[in-house]
Design goal:
It comes from Pseudoalteromonas rubra. This is NADP-dependent oxidoreductase. GO terms for molecular function: oxidoreductase activity. The protein has 311 residues and is an alpha/beta fold. The chain folds into 2 domains: 155 residues, Medium-chain alcohol dehydrogenases, catalytic domain (Quinone Oxidoreductase, Chain A, domain 1); 123 residues, Rossmann fold, CATH 3.40.50. The chain has 7 helices and 16 strands. The strands form 3 sheets. Strands 3, 5, 6, 7, 8, 15 and 16 form a 7-stranded mixed beta sheet that branches. The chain is globular. The two termini are 17 Å apart. The model has no long low-confidence stretch (mean pLDDT 94).
Length: 311
């Protein structure tokens, strides 16, 4: 790369609404000895982006302001740290970056090499940027927290979003019987992903007719009345946004999936994509100048698939 010292980036200096996203010229990230500097082609917008922007995680003290948001990245290796041997300059890669560090709403991002994987060959950069955070969340929930086999029944809330689209497919790969909850307009889409049964959350008392499941994966965490009653006493309830305080009458297990960056798992997911075993969520592509608009769209919590951003 040429001797570039600054880059464009979108940062927040304080928590709040979309107006807090400021385009600035900032210094190029430092590249530590175990890092890969990636020239960003595309990033994506995930709900965690605007929740961090609004200050939902402020009390956890994960971040230091000013902060560049956006932790999904697909792009090209621009530089490698002196200890890095697995990647070469010019190589196409993708990653979910460290959530505690600056993200990819920028021209470059520095990521520990252990979190980076080679871009799936079948995907362009826009498609690849839609994969990391959502697929890893689903992978870690389905493959690590849920005990799934051919006898397992699973209920997935928020099934048509980025995480849900992958979760349906990962659960089906393991042989589960999948019931997916989403609005009626997304039912055909979910059937193409392999869902055995689709349910409209707009139907009154829809949960009461479903019976009980071995696993309930609640991606929405909307505390809908009756959701705990859909979990078998011997089953497990998995949430994403928070750990739930369950009433004492429930005996099932409960865990929260707190997604962790993992280059090895991204390599496995990429192989499944290249082999045609996993379909991508639908993507909506928007320019860098429209990230605020993309946040507004994501905040509706009714996005099918993923929003990707061209840098």
């Amino acid at each position: 790369m040429t001797n570039i010292t600054t880059m464009k980036a979108l940062r927040i200096h304080e928590y709040g609404g979309q107006s807090k996203l400021l385009e600035e010229q900032v210094a190029l990230p430092n590249v530590a000895e175990d890092d890969v500097l990636i020239e960003v082609a595309y990033t994506s917008v995930n709900p965690v982006d605007w929740k961090v922007r609004e200050g939902w995680l402020a009390e956890e003290e994960l971040h230091q302001l000013p902060l560049i948001l956006g932790w999904d990245v697909a792009g090209t290796v621009a530089k490698v740290g002196e200890n890095v041997t697995g990647f070469q300059v010019g190589e196409p890669v993708y990653a979910f970056g460290d959530l505690t560090k600056d993200g990819a709403y920028a021209q470059f991002i520095s990521v520990n090499a252990a979190l980076v994987a080679k871009k799936p060959q079948k995907l362009d950069f826009a498609q690849a940027a839609s994969v990391p955070l959502t697929s890893l969340t689903a992978w870690q929930a389905i493959n690590q927290l849920a005990d799934i086999n051919a006898e397992t029944s699973i209920l997935i809330h928020g099934a048509s979003g980025g995480v849900g689209s992958f979760a349906v497919q990962f659960a089906k790969r393991l042989g589960a019987t999948v019931t997916a909850v989403a609005s009626a307009k997304n039912h055909d889409y979910l059937r193409t992903l392999g869902a055995d049964q689709v349910v409209d959350y707009n139907t009154p008392d829809y949960l009461q007719s479903l019976g009980q499941f071995d696993v309930v994966f609640d991606i929405v965490d909307n505390d809908v009345a009756g959701i705990y009653d859909t979990v078998k006493a011997t089953g497990k309830y998995i949430s994403t946004l928070k750990t739930h305080e369950l009433p004492a009458r429930y005996d099932f297990a409960h865990e929260r999936v707190l997604v962790m960056p993992n280059g090895g798992q991204l390599s496995e997911i990429g192989a499944l994509i290249d082999n045609g075993e996993i379909k991508l969520p639908e993507i909506v592509e928007m320019p860098f100048t429209s990230i605020g608009e993309a946040h507004a769209l994501s905040e509706t919590e009714h996005v099918r698939g993923k929003i990707v951003i061209s840098i």
